[in-house]
Amino acid sequence: MTEKKANILVIEDEPTIIEFLRTGLRYEGYDVLIAPEGKRGFDLAKHRGADLIILDLMLPDIDGMEICKKLRAGGNRVPIIILTAKTSVTDRVSGLDTGADDYITKPFSFEELVARVRALLRRTGHESEKTLLEIEDIILNVESMEVTRDGSPVHLTPAEFSLLELFMRHPKRVFTRETLLNRIFGYDFAGDTNIVDVHISHLRDKIKDKPPKLIRTVYGSGYSLQPERE
Fold first, then answer.
1. At 146, which helix (H) or strand (E)?
2. DSSP label at 127?
3. Could you tell me the pTM of the whole model?
4. Between 189 and 156, whose confidence is greater?
5. In the CATH hierarchy, which top-level class contains the domain 132-225?
């Protein structure tokens, strides 16, 4: 029986970020509920509940800090990750002082966000996702950020590690270049999708991906990890 993923409430008004989070979190298997206004988000958090809340501070009707304060004052202890363009230490401290559990500044990559989501959900007992991934003779340790192939260490850049983790969590799934670009480099990345091909090429070299390749090009679509052994 497949374990049910957590419910995540996103309280955010920017359409680009809403779609970025909705698509990425659903890819990970989470149930996602969107509230583009603060009042709607607060009501959903109170009456429908959530296992985790992603909360923007700059909302059109109610300040995100106020929402966080009201939820905590009412006894709601659901983990809250604050999203904001404010970067000062004072702003970070203020956000955490209101009762938020984590704080991410915009722009951000999806991989950074989802790593924090997993950590908070594990802490509250809602997430039992593997932190040690193994496909064929490749072992990836999410917590130590170490990779080995056939027992030998493989030294990857953060982007290469994120790509490999994504592929290993979702074997056989085809990812478009645009999806990989957004997942690894963030929704605001202005570069060409060819940078994905460069990183995939480097990753293949480092894991000694010989034909038939483990990470395969799906022509006209993108890339997919295709294990030989099931």
1. strand 146-149
2. -
3. 0.76
4. 156
5. mainly alpha
